[in-house]
């Protein structure tokens, strides 16, 4: 999730038991040309295994970016063929590659040949309901040397609307022998068991359900989450980690969406004016104090304990 699963977020997810965390999407050409943002997204900070997701349209940039990632500590390269964002598909990358399987395979082949570490692919079911080609692409990717496939159970044109089709992922399972990860609308432990049963996948990937609770992947995997009275300190710790990672000015801006998710999930009764003050303040000390008050409110603590 670009703009969400940055290094501080992944560090928290890993701390609470996520089995594998993946970087934000790194634009391959920008990495080759030393863009600062791409290098920031590449950082692993000791998380093992370090899985780097690359996006791109041209084989030469993907291959060169994979070499750079490997040289800088990547243990796994993941090729993004699933992002539905207009900015990404406008550059004919992400899920747009599913409209051109032959071209997509040329990117996969170049990346696999360029590095010694495993290469994986993340995709959707297809571009739209008339072109469900994930099984075909997955089988060809396996033949090209890809070692794991992740499938989100929607087409690109569905974006995030409706429900992910867990049953449709089973066709990919039937087409490949390598490990398969299923993704889409997994919120609960029961969801995780059900998507595994219906898709035949080997593992589950979660994304949006971790917004406002970066520990949730670990909880789904059977690890304990934080106690309710620990959540205020954890949220403030996350906030401070972001300020350290990005620098104060940029970190405050990047943190706002996370603070909104935390407050929506753990303090939904907070008055709109108080929430707006937290979300718009440039004073890190004020934000930390206000978060602590909001999340320590008796109603918020009761909601956290119920969750």
From TrEMBL:
| InterPro entries per the UniProt record, alphabetical | Aldolase_TIM, DUS-like_FMN-bd, DUS_fam, DusB-like, tRNA-dHydroUridine_Synthase_C, tRNA_hU_synthase_CS
The residues that hold FMN are 53, 122, 152, 207-208
Name the cofactor(s) required for activity, per the record. FMN
**EC number(s)?**
1.3.1.-
Q: Does the keyword Transferase apply?
A: no
GO MF annotations in UniProt:
flavin adenine dinucleotide binding; tRNA binding; tRNA dihydrouridine synthase activity
Q: Which residues form the DUS-like FMN-binding domain?
A: 1-272
Extract the Gene3D superfamilies matched here: Aldolase class I, Putative flavin oxidoreducatase, domain 2
Q: Which UniProt keywords apply?
A: Flavoprotein, FMN, NADP, Nucleotide-binding, Oxidoreductase, RNA-binding, tRNA processing, tRNA-binding
Transmembrane domains' residue ranges:
none
Recorded catalytic activity of this chain's protein = a 5,6-dihydrouridine in tRNA + NAD(+) = a uridine in tRNA + NADH + H(+); a 5,6-dihydrouridine in tRNA + NADP(+) = a uridine in tRNA + NADPH + H(+)
Q: Does the keyword Transmembrane apply?
A: no
* Pfam families per record: Dus
The top EC class, named as a word, is oxidoreductase
| Family matches, as PROSITE patterns | UPF0034
Entry annotation: catalytic residues: 83
- What does the UniProt function comment say about this protein? Catalyzes the synthesis of 5,6-dihydrouridine (D), a modified base found in the D-loop of most tRNAs, via the reduction of the C5-C6 double bond in target uridines.
Homology family: Belongs to the dus family.
**Cross-referenced NCBIfam families, in alphabetical order?**
nifR3_yhdG
Provide the protein name: tRNA-dihydrouridine synthase
Q: Origin organism of this chain?
A: Rhizobium rosettiformans
């Amino acid at each position: 999730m670009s703009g969400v699963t940055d290094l501080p977020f992944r560090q928290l997810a890993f701390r609470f038991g996520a089995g594998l965390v993946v970087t934000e999407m790194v634009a391959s050409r920008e990495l080759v040309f030393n863009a600062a943002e791409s290098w920031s997204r590449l950082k692993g900070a000791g998380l093992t295994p370090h899985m780097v997701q690359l996006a791109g349209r041209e084989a030469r940039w993907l291959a060169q970016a994979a070499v750079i990632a490997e040289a800088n500590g990547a243990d796994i390269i993941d090729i993004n063929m699933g992002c539905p964002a207009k900015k990404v598909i406008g550059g004919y990358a992400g899920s747009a590659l599913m409209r051109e399987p032959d071209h997509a395979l040329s990117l996969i082949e170049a990346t696999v040949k360029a590095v010694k570490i495993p290469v994986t692919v993340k995709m959707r079911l297809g571009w739209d309901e008339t072109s469900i080609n994930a099984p075909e692409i997955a089988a060809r990717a396996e033949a090209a040397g890809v070692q794991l496939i992740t499938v989100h159970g929607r087409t690109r044109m569905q974006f995030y609307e409706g429900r992910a089709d867990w049953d449709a992922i089973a066709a990919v399972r039937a087409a490949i022998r390598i490990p398969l990860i299923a993704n889409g609308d997994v919120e609960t432990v029961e969801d995780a068991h059900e998507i595994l049963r219906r898709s035949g996948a080997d593992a589950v990937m979660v994304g949006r359900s971790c917004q406002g609770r970066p520990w949730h992947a670990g909880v789904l995997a059977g690890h304990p989450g934080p106690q309710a009275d620990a959540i205020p300190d954890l949220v403030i710790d996350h906030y401070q980690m972001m300020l350290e990672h990005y620098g104060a000015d940029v970190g405050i801006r990047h943190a706002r969406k996370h603070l909104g998710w935390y407050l929506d999930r753990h303090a939904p009764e907070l008055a709109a004016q108080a929430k707006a003050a937290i979300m718009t303040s440039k004073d890190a000390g004020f934000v930390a104090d206000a978060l602590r008050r909001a999340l320590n409110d008796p109603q918020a603590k009761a909601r956290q304990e119920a969750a």
